[in-house]
Amino acid sequence: MHYQSIKLTFEGDAVARLTLARPDMQNALSLDVVAELRHALQVVAQKEQVRALVLTGEGKTFCAGGDLNWMKTVLSQSRAQRIADSRPLADLFYEFDNLPKVVIGRINGPATGGGFGLTCICDVAVGATTARFSLTEARLGLAPANIGPYVVRRLGLAKARRYGLTAQFIDAVQAERVGLLDRVVPPEELDRVIEEELALVRSLPASAIARTKRLFNDVVGRPPVECMDYTANCLADAWETPEAREGIAAFLEKRAPAWKVTRA
To answer: Would you say 163 and 135 are in contact if contact means Cβ atoms under 8 Å apart?
Structure first.
């Protein structure tokens, strides 16, 4: 697939980089952009040795949410068509959330609406001090529907209500304080800090990353007693992998495991 609105590149076998590349449109999400992103995620998911996906935006904005030109067309649609057009966006967030890689958000600038939601699905979110955030849907008489489950999970119900019901903007420092961001750095330090995060991920086997992410998604919100059989089987499965044998041997022999990779 030839991408018009995004860029997908790879650094060696371990790292993929996915860039929203519509700076003239503040990297807003249209149905065409959503389709390209979903295709890119499929490509990344199929590369077993990729450990991390770095998600960012081109230009000064991370993502301004929904494309207003697309929203205009929705006004004239039937209810059935509106639902049909909304579903790919819901699928996109689900596929991001279940990607068996570490999704590292390089939040280079403002993230509003769907951009706020994309920040929420990042496993690690590093933001520039110039970034600002808002759930802007209510300003348009709408609701943050497709991103809602991920916003609530990231921030908790109280904070989700605080920002979703007021549509207020917050800066990067406040975003870090409430848990939307993990780290905040000056723009000129953003790439260096992303490399620090990638160095951590490169030291882990891809299979363990995928297994751990799936585990967390499967147990979230469930009482621990209901998870016991599942987690016991999960651990037994992990013990039976070549990565477990190599990891234990490397630890006992005080050497780097075979899967550890350096920057490409």
So the answer is: yes
What residues form DSSP beta bridges with 102?
A: 52
**Dihedral sign computed on CA atoms, order 113, 165, 77, 69:** negative
Global pTM? 0.95
Distance CA 194, CA 209 (A): 18
Q: Which two tokens stand for residue 128?
A: 């520039």
Write the CATH number of the domain with boundaries 6-202: 3.90.226.10
CA angle 182, 159, 184 (to 5 degrees): 20
3-state secondary structure (DSSP) of residue 112: strand
The runs of H, that is alpha helices, within 122-223 are 148-155, 157-164, 172-177, 190-202, 206-219
The answer to whether the CB of 257 falls within 8 A of the CB of 246 is yes
Q: Phi and psi dihedrals of 233, rounded to 5?
A: -70, -35
The angle formed by the CA atoms of residues 62, 65 and 67, to the nearest 5 degrees, is 115
* C-alpha distances out from residue 150 to 4, 128, 160, 162, 211, Å: 27, 21, 10, 15, 20
Where do the structural domains in the chain lie, given as residue ranges?
6-202, 206-252
Q: What is the pLDDT of residues 162-219, one digit of tens each?
A: 999 999 999 999 999 999 999 999 999 999 999 999 999 999 999 999 999 999 999 9
